[in-house]
Design brief:
single chain; 82 residues; mainly alpha; two-stranded parallel sheet; 2 strands; 10% strand
Amino acid sequence: MMGDIANKYKEFLLYSNNFTVYPIDSQVAEKAAEIKGHYDIKTPDAIQVATAIGNNGTLFITNDKNLKKIDKVKVLTIEDLM
């Protein structure tokens, strides 16, 4: 059962017209370490933000208000959008 859910998410994220999946390379990893150290955020968040910045993202949408302190990309929370 859990495999079915994971496969549905995988299919949605990899093949949806609304998402682009980018690889995590050494440049993203280095940027993530810099962001994590500077903003004191969790590693997965730093990786996602670094990936957005490294691929010229202009907006990062999250549920985590703590990430609004990042000034390298515009961060909006779901609450901001409502």
